[in-house]
Amino acid sequence: LTDGAESSQFSMSLSEIPENDDTKAATKSYSELVLEKANLTYKRGVDCQDVGDYQQAIKFFTKALMLDPDNVELYRHRAECFLRITDFKSAILNWRKVLLNIPFYMDFDILLT
User: Fold this and answer.
1) Cα gap 11→3, rounded to integer Å
2) Residues near 68 by Cβ (< 8 Å), separated by ≥ 6?
3) Does pTM top 0.85 for this prediction?
């Protein structure tokens, strides 16, 4: 490479690389994988909750929240588990997250169960 214009072409930072359909698809598939992992972890938490293993369920819901922190359903389930083990402070903190996000929470009936 003897031309200065050509050599500068290869010195772009990653943020300067234009997005195309391939990079968008790769990002989307990564996001989908993360949400899929969060959903599987959530289901494991529900399974533990269903058999009364609330401590383990809390661990699964917490892991799922690390992957999908905006999922209000995860906070609701974790709040219920904290309530069952009489950790009222943690239950209140989780219910607060649920209640603060009610406008975005589509299934209002589930709050009444």
Assistant:
1) 13
2) 34, 35, 38, 39, 42, 74
3) no
